[in-house]
UniProtKB/TrEMBL annotation:
Record-stated family: Belongs to the class I-like SAM-binding methyltransferase superfamily. MenG/UbiE family.
UniProt binding sites for S-adenosyl-L-methionine: 61, 82, 110-111
Pathway it works in: Quinol/quinone metabolism; menaquinone biosynthesis; menaquinol from 1,4-dihydroxy-2-naphthoate: step 2/2
Protein name (record): Demethylmenaquinone methyltransferase
Species annotation: Lentilactobacillus otakiensis DSM 19908 = JCM 15040
Gene Ontology molecular-function annotations: demethylmenaquinone methyltransferase activity
Described function: Methyltransferase required for the conversion of demethylmenaquinol (DMKH2) to menaquinol (MKH2).
Ranges in coiled-coil conformation: none
Domain of life: Bacteria
Amino acid sequence: MSLTNKTPETKVESLFDQIADNYDGMNSLISLGNHKHWRKLVMKQLNVQPGSFAIDVCCGTGDWTIALARAVGPSGQVIGLDFSEEMLKIAEKKVAAAGLRDRVTLVKGDAMHLPYDDNQFDLATIGFGLRNVPDADQVLHEMTRVIHDQGRVACLETSKPTNPIIKLGWRAYFNLVPIMAKLTVNKYQEYSYLQRTTAEFVSAAKLVEMFQNAGLTDVSYRQFTFGAAAFHLGTKHA
Ligand SMILES: C[S@@+](CC[C@H](N)C(=O)[O-])C[C@H]1O[C@@H](n2cnc3c(N)ncnc32)[C@H](O)[C@@H]1O
């Protein structure tokens, strides 16, 4: 069975347009600064080679796109794709401030239908995006389609702690997220949505199956901060 986010795509797009200005700050607040640490660990594990061609799907304000651009070096290229113009505008500013315009192309597009031919990229990444798309299986198939043989698909996403006590604390904390958003940036509804998609997203074990169903092999994952987030990695063997 396919994992679907029942909120219409146009609603998700306008929601991200509305929160774009506060997104980076809220990310740090909600994850208690942990997302920066997770991103560093992920990049270390990925060991991206200079000269690589990568696509960062659902790139948002560009944190992963920028980290990839640094890793691929001047001989590489990174595409950052997202459907929210406001998120892309912030990404554009951050890419320029980092001096990486020469190796980053930001594209407005739909993760469900990547506008690229088969077998193009060395690496396709998606960070905190998979739980927001209408069909996560389709997006994983699309990411697998556009990487070449031996290419890799990587996903960093919120996950579910398995320890029952940690799970209780995690749920209680996540219930506070919309309230924190109301108090800090006056965006209760938007962060209720993000809290709900986090709670509804699949377990790390189920996401392994979804990677395999998309045609990826050697699928592995590691969890961060007692299972609050998980990093999945798979390889395409054509
Ligand atoms: C939670 S943000 C993650 C942003 C960024 N990857 C990060 O790591 O911070 C999710 C992003 O996915 C984008 N998104 C959601 N559904 C999409 C779709 N179907 N096609 C393209 N982008 C989508 C949203 O616009 C938003 O920028």
